[in-house]
Structure formats: structure tokens, C-alpha cells
Amino acid sequence: MTSDGALSGRRVLVCRAAAESAELLSSLAALGAEAVAHPLIEIAPTGDQLALVDAAAQWKRGEYGWLVVTSANGARAFARAAGRMPSGDERPSKVAAVGPATAAALRRWGVSVDLMPEHDYSGRGLAEALLHELRGSARPTSAVLPVSHLASDTVQRALEAAGHRVHRVDAYRTVPNGQTVRTLLEHTRFDAVLLFSASGAAELARHISVVSQGTRLIAIGPPTAAVLEARGVRVDAIAKRHTSQGLIDAVVELLGSSSDPPVSDSKPGGKPATLTTRTLD
User: Virtual CA dihedral for 103, 279, 148, 232, nearest 10 degrees?
Assistant: First the structure.
């Protein structure tokens, strides 16, 4: 639970497009924060659109036992490629989503979700949930996995190691947008930066020299934090729940009771220190 004014005077950078962040921005504003949304990456169509359309058509024909979706962007790209997403009794397979945002994106296209991890909204959590669901199946299943061209192979490797067949297909590309964020960070100090993906974290790491030393970096989950840690960049917190609300809770826990004053508009020079990753227990 959080209280009104808990983030009064705090400035927060939300590294996601404003169109996807309206509810998050509103919640931060209600807590007194000045919140700005600006994505570190842009979403672009896959370079092989025909392969994606073919995979969607195969799924609609019932050639896969599962549709496994690891991001809201993947859900939207796959739905567009399918043309019309079958729902209800027409649905050709079971559907698994990595977390609430992805499940919500699927529901907006009329597709209900059969399986979602209970707590760990990551590739690892999704793989574990699927393997638990498939344990004891009479025969291996097949799955279509629409992902970013840079997505990890965590889900694919786990399913294939258990004998299942996975058709991974590029559904979209991520395009760096860090230069404009760099300009923003050069001219504005933030108390916290919220990170939503491994690709976004990698882009921020490229521009870490302009992030003020007092700025807290908060990751939505361990894979996002790991990208920064691997590049020697501190992570001040990982959301306990890998959701937008989990990020808000982490910001409040870090800054709501902090004795540190809000950042000023003057930016000291120098590179931020690189510290051992710190997570919320």
C-alpha cells in the first residue's frame, strides 16, 4: 500500500512509451511525483514479415498445441499477423502468457489465456509454469513462440530439453532510441529511472555516463537487472512483483522514506559509481 504524497518532489523517468504508460504515470503523479515517459527502444516490424504471417496461419490451422507469448509487443505483432484472432471455441490451441501485461494485450484481441506464472513474470517463470502444466502428458507438444529478434532463448531451451517442439519466430524488432533519452538525461536530473526490459537496460548502459550519481535505477525483473550488472552498472532495486505496480512499490520503498533530498536541476560532473547490485528483499 502507498499513500498520497509519498513521492512528493521526486522526479521519475519511465523508460517506456507514454501510450503504454498512462496508468503508471497517473499512479506516480497521484503519489506526488513528476513522471516523464520516454522509451529507450522503439518497436519496429520484423524483417521477415512473411515468416510471421505463415506462423500465425499455421497456428490458426491448429498445427500447434500452444501459443506462448513472452511480451505485450509479441502479442500485438502476432495478432496483427493473424489478421483475426480466433476466440472462444474457435481458438486452435491453449495460450500461455508471461505476465499480466501480456495477458491483457491478448485479451484486447479477444484471446483468453490458459496459463500464466503465479509470481515470476519472466522467461524462466513461464518455462517452469509450462513444464509443470505439461508434466505427465502422454506425448510431447508443439508450441509457436513469437518473440523479439533479440529475445533470450530461455523458454525455447527449457521446452526443447523436455522433448517438446518449439517454433520460434521473430515477431518484431527493437530499435535503439537511447540518443534522445541521453539528451533528456543530460539536461534533467531524475531521482529514479524505471527499466522494463533487457534491451532497454542495454541501451541505458550505453549512455550511463550521463546518469547522475544519485539517480536510482530500478528494474522490473532479474533479467533486466542482470543486463546492467553485467556491464558494471549498479541496480538499486528489483521490483518484488514484476509489474508496473511492483515498480511503483519499489520506488516508494527506496525514495518515499529516504532522507535524501529530491534532485536539483544542477548536474554535477563525473561518471556514476558502479556498485554491486542491490535488490529488495
Answer: 170
